[in-house]
Amino acid sequence: TDPTCDDATLRGNFVMRDISLHHNYVHDTGGEGFYVGHTFYLGANTPCGVRLPHVIEGLKIYSNVVRNTGWDGIQVGSCPKGAKVYYNTIENFGVKNELYQNNGVQFGAGAPGEFYGNLVKDGPGMGLIILDNAENFVHDNVFINTGLDGIFCDERTAEGPGFKFINNTIINP
Q1: What is the pLDDT of residue 133?
Q2: How far apart are CA 68 and CA 33, in angstroms?
Q3: Distance CA 151, CA 165 (A)
Q4: pTM higher than 0.90 for the full model?
Q5: How is the chain classified by DSSP, letter by letter?
Q6: Which pick of 36, 87, 105, 109 has the fewest CB atoms within 10 Å?
């Protein structure tokens, strides 16, 4: 639910809990394979001004095959507690090569979490991009033939205890 002028849609009034997306084959999409949580954690423009989107607490995205996405393979935002993305295969992502929409996986604002055991390959953007948070644990992933960086971590506006990157393999970025 995007934030609207209805207060029931806003952070503090609505929380989604314990979301699991698993064992799916997502392919040939025009946009993202998975788009989970609102992109603008710090506030979205609405007709009544800037409003805070609701959050997700407890998110698991696992054991999926995501192939031939027009935009990002998986995008996670506004999930400040318990985001885990693991054991997925993301192939041929960002085929439209739309700027800022062509990454394998994105952890956006308000989405610290754990990313492990994933295979990300063949796309024009970053294999994994982390924006506006500083509390991600990234381990035991393989990134192959990403058009840009295998892993890009942007901590410029981030707060948190820091990042952990352990035992990731990056081939031919």
Answers
A1: 81
A2: 9
A3: 10
A4: yes
A5: ----SSGGGBTTT-EEEEEEEES-EEEEESS-SEEES-S-TT-EEETTEEEPBPEEEEEEEES-EEEEESS-SEEE-S--EEEEEES-EEES--TT--TTS--SEEE-TT--EEEES-EEEEESS-SEEEES----EEES-EEEEESS-SEEEE-TT--SS--EEES-EEE--
A6: 87
Mean pLDDT, range 123-131, rounded to an integer: 96
pLDDT value of residue 155: 73
**pLDDT score of 33 more than 90:** yes
Count of Cβ atoms closer than 10 Å to residue 37 Cβ = 24
